[in-house]
Amino acid sequence: MADMDPITLMRTRVVMHKDRVAYPSSMDFPQNFPGEDLAWDLEKFKENFKIVIGFIGKDDMEFDLIGIDASIANAFRRILIGEVPTMAIERVYVINNTTIMHDEILSHRLGLIPIKADPRAFDYKEGEEDQPTDLNTIVFNLAIQCSVNKNAPPNSVDPKVKFINSSGSLKWQPQGDQEERLGTEIRPVHDDVLLTKMRPGQEIELEVHCQKGIGKEHAKWSPVATASYRLLPDIQILKPITGQDAIKFQRCFPQGVVEVVKNRKGEQEAKIANPRKDTVSREVLRHKEFEDKVRLTRVRDHFIFSIESTGILPPHILFKEAVGILRLKCARLKQALDDKLMG
Amino acid sequence: MAMVEPTTDTTGVPHTEGEKIEILASDYEDPSVATFSIRDEDHTLGNSLRYMIMKNPAVAFCGYALPHPSEYKINLRIQTDGMFILVSGFLNTRATSSDDYVSGSMTAVEALHKGLDDLMALCDHVTETFDAKLAEREFEIREGAEVDAQ
């Protein structure tokens, strides 16, 4: 088993030891290695950079970003969580609320409801002086009364049978030409979010205004449930692991990571089958018999990226938006720098 | 973001008053070094920009800091390899191209410009690659996925 040469190991892998992590930071900078040109070169980057999409679902996706630095991958992740805008309820005008839920708590709960509206079709509302218009505000109404169901069987205990709520959820009130302009109905992503429980005789009547915003201001505007990445694990077997040890070795990893095969001598030997499934629990490093036989590493520039959308925008759109926002940040700063120096 | 005081006058985006970018005054003598104070930015742009600028062989040092958690800004320090002497003007006169200097390969401002350009080119390529992969359809499409949504 050919061992990876130490320089390549240092440059391309994050090595996991029992009690520490070695080579965590990137070192591909000019002058770090003699005789090598590590200056930024777009063509070189294009050659090395790869995206492999694993799957796209209704609200989630997984893909690999290969050949990119952690600082950039992390910028995409941070932008996804905090800087891709969405529409969320910002103002609640309570006309009547006789439930036991306080107006403030009810408003907070309303704010966190994901609203299925394309944020790209709306403007930010620029402060108090900026009047609400059909371009920056979405309006919903909520009017519910709870009453006793007179037709319920006398011995019924289920509140869904005993009581009746007069209406369902938030009703969209299109403003201006919103209906024609958007072409689709605006509604909450889920129609069964529990806001509060009501008793007969209680009622809620309110109007809410949605505004555009970003997750950095308040988490209700975050377009993702989570966006995260992990580095691809790479388990290196340095000396053959055979016999009973092979079985024990296999048990140190999640199912499917290690397979035990018959080698040429007819012994059982452990082979790495699918390192991607490994959680890098480092269990294997607790056992003396594997001490100098295995090395746990992660590939430093291979990111397994996962996006879970709240359902407002499809996950692949969110990623494209995030990349666009990083570009926009650069363009804005460049413009500001030009203005500063010329002015 | 916890650091900006909440007001009723929200725009949905945290922002602070002042110029987007300032060059701290201590560095006016030597254009090969500069500390840029950039408002309304954090690790997202700071770290990725630091990486791109450090990839520039003319840059001797680049680092950034968030000076305080309740100030929404970063300080970005760039030192290039050249000692510059202005051909025309003194001190506060800032040159915009390397032709204005007698020696040296790049000013700190130029290094920042190059870093921004490189980062934008990188973003363009990531978008292009991602779009191409989407179009190839060589991945699992699960129930309800809106792969064609734009």
UniProtKB/TrEMBL annotation, chain A:
Domain DNA-directed RNA polymerase RpoA/D/Rpb3-type: residue ranges: 60-336
Example GO molecular function: protein dimerization activity
Cellular component annotations (GO), alphabetically ordered: RNA polymerase I complex; RNA polymerase III complex
CDD domains: RNAP_I_II_AC40
Principal cellular location given in the protein's record: nucleus
GO biological process entries: transcription elongation by RNA polymerase I
Family matches, as SUPFAM superfamilies: Insert subdomain of RNA polymerase alpha subunit (SSF56553), RBP11-like subunits of RNA polymerase (SSF55257)
Localization annotation: Nucleus
Domain of life: Eukaryota
SMART domains, sorted: RPOLD (SM00662)
UniProt entry keywords in alphabetical sequence: DNA-directed RNA polymerase, Nucleus, Transcription
Pfam family, one: RNA_pol_A_bac
PANTHER family found in the cross-reference section: DNA-DIRECTED RNA POLYMERASE, DNA-DIRECTED RNA POLYMERASES I AND III SUBUNIT RPAC1
Similarity section: Belongs to the archaeal Rpo3/eukaryotic RPB3 RNA polymerase subunit family.
Name of the molecule in the record: DNA-directed RNA polymerases I and III subunit RPAC1
Species assigned in the record: Rhizophlyctis rosea
Automatic annotation (TrEMBL), chain B:
GO biological process, one term: transcription by RNA polymerase III
Compartments it resides in: Nucleus
Pfam annotation, one family: RNA_pol_L_2
GO cellular component: nuclear DNA-directed RNA polymerase complex; RNA polymerase I complex; RNA polymerase III complex
Principal localisation: nucleus
Keywords (A to Z) from UniProt: DNA-directed RNA polymerase, Nucleus, Transcription
GO-annotated molecular function: DNA binding; DNA-directed RNA polymerase activity; protein dimerization activity
Transmembrane feature ranges: none
Name under which the protein is recorded: RNA polymerase subunit AC19
Species of the source: Rhizophlyctis rosea
